[in-house]
Write a structure and sequence with these properties.
Outer membrane efflux proteins (OEP), alpha+beta, 475 residues, single chain, 6-stranded antiparallel β-sheet
Length: 475
Amino acid sequence: MRRAVLAGALASASALAQMIPAPKLEPRSWLTLADVIASVEKHYPPLLAAVQDRVIAGADVLIAEGRFDLAMTAGWEGDYLGYYENQVFKSQVEQPTQFQGMSFFSGYNIGRGSFASYDGKNQTDSGGEYRAGLRAPLFRDRAIDSRRADLQKALIGRRIADLGVDQQRLVILQLAARRYYDWLAAGRRYEVAKEVLRAAETRDQQLRATAGAGQIPQIDVTDNMRAIYTRRGQVVEAQRGLQLAAIELSLYYRDERGEPQLPAEAMLPPAFPEMREITEERMKEDIDLALKRRPEIQRFSAQRSQVEVDRRLAENQLQPNIDFSLTYARLIGDREVRRGPDDLVASLIFDLPFQRRAAKGRNASALARIEQFGQRERFARDQVVAEVRDAYSALVAAYQRAKLLRQEVEVALELERAERQKFELGDGTLFLVNLREQATFDTAVREVAAVNDYFRALALYEFAIAEAMTRKPAK
């Protein structure tokens, strides 16, 4: 009679075995990592703030392009109290271009009154004078000048801003993945704790009835109550862990308004995703991919390109300045001046500072900075290789540990079943059954931690190889 009653009482304890591992179910409404990543891409404030760096860099490009805007100048001058009384109006529009440093201009002048011989160019025919021409540098400023240098640096700066956003995105997505797996692990611990408590509570009702009939000693009921109190404490602790993990995840998982939302317990997936083993050959291939993908390496290269622009500009300043200009002028209206009516004026302007120390200093500074960025890029590449190898080592260790703990759980379950059978046959005690159940629970919790460590290591590995760069950000 004792065996039959206890067999029914202890049968519920086998439910714990069903929790480890969890059954495979088809996805329904639980929260996935893809959902969290999509929420981060759309609503995570630090990432949205980082994206503004792209807007700022785009504005810098617009500022640099503004130096090539069409410019208009106009002025009026009158002389009334001197021997010569006159009025002069001048206007001009000028369009600088990026081609060979050339600029084009056109204008209109009109002069009225009497002029001294040295101001004769201000006097025009009755209809005024139209002018058009061009200016072109022949040596200095031909290949590059300050305007084109600023524009080139701004364009590179926009690329640097993009890489900076990508770098922050990688870090944020890695943190989001780790918070998601922490929440999933906390949910698994909570489910295991509830299940082992449920087994003891179900057994308590049947033990009390059996003890009331005098078929088992009262101490078995008391011992089972001790196990219930212990397991209730474990449930409270696991529930608090789940709540904390949900709160931390809510910083990344947000609603359509961008407000943090706590993922409900019902949104917990029934199990971790399947673990996969990564071979050393795959790791070596991923190192090459990481060196191509990682934004910080490309950033150093872009920064070096910016300084290269400064070097080219400094070398440009070492050259002599010879500017060529060509102007065509057309006087219209009644003839009042002897020049014209058509003029074509060509000119050359030569300028060369002899010492050119400023240009030499800028050139030396640029060369040193180029060497700096070259060494920094080299070390960054070494760091990336080390990070990938370290992440791979951690991932392999976590994978092996999780597999060993899964085997340990199976052994613990086998020992638990054996101890329960001994008790049913009258050769064991409830105390030992509780110990075996607690041992199975502890091992299951350690397995959950090991699997969580694996997926956290996987998130770190994917960060090291910049896996997220293969996925386009959500719009």
